[in-house]
Amino acid sequence: MVTRTRTATAVALLCALALPVSTAATASASAVAPRLSAPSSPSVPAPAAPRSSVASSVPAAFVSAARAELPAPTGPYAVGSSVLHLVDRSRPDPWVREAGARELMVTLHYPAARHSGPPGPRPAPAPYATTEEARLLLRGLNLEQAVPAARLAEMRTHSRRDARPARGRHPLVLLSPGFGVSRYTLTHLAEDLAGRGYVVASVDHAYESLGTAMPGGRVLTCEACTAVEEGGVDESLVAATRADDMSFVIDRLTGCHAVTKYAAMIDKRRIGMAGHSIGGAAAATAMVADRRIGAGINMDGGFQEELPSGGLGGRPFMMLGTDDAVHRPGGSDTSWNTVWPALDGWKRWLTVAGSEHFTFSDSPVISRHFGLPQPPLPADRAVAITRTYVAAFLDVHLRGMDRPVLDGPTAAQPEVRFHRP
């Protein structure tokens, strides 16, 4: 279970279920928003917060007049992006049966050729989110008075829509966001990985976010939140559903009938998955279900089920979380302690001092820009650490590269602790 001090981070824009049902059940579902809660200590239930309490605590003068901007990618490639609408007609949506086939929205970030000037105009910058998606997120987190939806939606990204792809074949990385939030909340990481030479598929799982824009002007809301928090549905269904989603995404990006013109640049022999919160838990679930996923990362999520007796079949896995009484060895999220010995391949258990649950997303950048409360770890360090360790892990296991930063503590990354229980 995540400690009560993290309730403040729900104000930092991203609220997601971090822990398995067994430990999360005692947290108040109304800690920050009617449907999403900031995880809290099992011994200290989170008190309900009035809808106006968050917004009123953030003076409007703190909001920068400048346009918000994500940190630039660090790799050698330019970054392109394309949005895909995928429909799996082989299975119904588990949250809204009358919706019919399971739908997914996918943003593909990929290595693009550097623009060399005329002839021809440069492709347009990719949008961060739609205004309606941003509005629904902010309303759900009680932040609509503190952060203008249009300002969040127009945050500057560093990818260009349908830019010409770089030559060669590149590893594929699947990204899954936290429960209740959308794929765009992992954009800084997705763009950075694409700039380093990965094709990145960030997935919105239908009815599992506060707002997901769909073709035809439809916007799906979080029916899964209601099912879990009010209907008694076990959170393991979320992880299992996402595992099925990711297998379908792999099929549609790499199969004989790939749906995107960028399929030719994907090396289907090299696939990894990372996720935040329940998206990180889903990475392990997906690896159990689909051996095509060769490596996985869980960023501060509680595992939803134990691994089978065969573990992950020797495939590598990294746990990256907060350095506190939750995710240190022996911490209150007992799922990490249970899963660790079952990981039967290369593995790392890393925690980050001064971080909180939402450190591993775009939240630090958003919170800093809009004057929202922030944890001790500065936004620049949060971004750098997340990018450095996620990329290093993927470089080692999908590209066979040497990355000493994963060998143990370094002076350049003093906040990162290595655990070998």
UniProtKB/TrEMBL annotation:
Entry GO MF terms: 1-alkyl-2-acetylglycerophosphocholine esterase activity
InterPro entries: AB_hydrolase_fold
Protein keywords: Hydrolase, Lipid degradation, Lipid metabolism, Signal
Entry-linked Pfam families: PAF-AH_p_II
Range of residues in the leader sequence: 1-27
One biological process term in Gene Ontology: lipid catabolic process
Gene3D superfamilies assigned to the protein according to its UniProt record, in alphabetical order: alpha/beta hydrolase
PANTHER family: PLATELET-ACTIVATING FACTOR ACETYLHYDROLASE (PTHR10272:SF0)
Protein name according to UniProt: Acetylhydrolase
Organism per entry: Streptomyces agglomeratus
Organism lineage string: Bacteria, Bacillati, Actinomycetota, Actinomycetes, Kitasatosporales
